[in-house]
Known about the structure:
This is Polysaccharide deacetylase. The protein has helices at 6-18, 26-31, 48-60, 78-86, 97-112, 120-124, 128-131, 137-163, 201-204, 234-239, 247-255, 276-299; strands spanning 22-23, 37-44, 66-69, 90-95, 171-173, 211-214, 262-267. With 300 residues, the chain is an alpha/beta fold. It has one domain (6-99, 135-299): Alpha-Beta Barrel (TIM Barrel). The longest helix is centred in the middle third of the chain and has 27 residues, at 137-163. The radius of gyration is 21 Å and the shape is globular.
Amino acid sequence: MRDFTIIQYTKMLKTLLAQGFSFQPFFAFIENPNPKVIMLRHDVDKLPENSLKTAQLEASLGIRGSYYFRTVPCSYSVEIIREIARLGHEVGYHYETMDSARLKVKGDKLKEKGFEVKNERSKCSEDPDLSGLKDRKDNREADIDRHIDAAYEEFCEKLELIRGLVPVTTICMHGSPQSAYDNKDIWRKFDYKALGVIGEPYFDIDFDKVFYLTDTGRRWNGYKVSVRDKMPQQARWAREGLIFKTTTDIINAAKSGRLPNQIMITVHPQRWSNAAIPWAKELVLQNIKNVVKWAMIRMR
């Protein structure tokens, strides 16, 4: 049987419901966590129409989840964001501004040097500070601080963009494996709670108490090829036998009562499809990505 189909996804949700799990959006868990509960988190990295399908399915089962949208064209859809919220789901911001702000910071530095940004490629080689020929250790902290400032400014703008459509009280970082930046680093300097944000999973969930499952890498045991989405508790979970490769493995563990009582499950809806061609395309592309990510991890 093919995994990562809507058929398998539906079976998993129905099994969890049958085993007595309730479902809470992340914001509701933060405010008043249920004792036996699933937080169903959706990272809408691309193909938002797939997220609408899972949102409709979940709503038909009486399930409310959390959907985190990026503000890039492959994720951001005004109509879909509004419809998912109308179905009763939480909508949050899937931020990546430490990554996206790098171009603005680089452009600002070039302008300070009197260069035209459009000639950045050729001008960099003429400037020893930008080309790496000059020791910049003294300026490194200032550069990081400026980068964080630019990322925070962009974060605030994008947060208000989504809030112009629906209420947003939680956020979740987007972890691109190709990026040199950790998007959570904004919060080394700033406090998202000052913006009316009550939670970010990587800061506001105690994963010593909450079990974490993610389909990162198009597998449920993809932590070995995950660059960003890692939990320090993974070794303990492995010792406890809480490692699952397939959706069927999770279903069987639920039926046998082996799952912990509080779980966050992260899914990427673009991975899940009943249609053969999109399913096969995602399989091939993700397998290639996993090889690349494995190599990146080995080189770090």
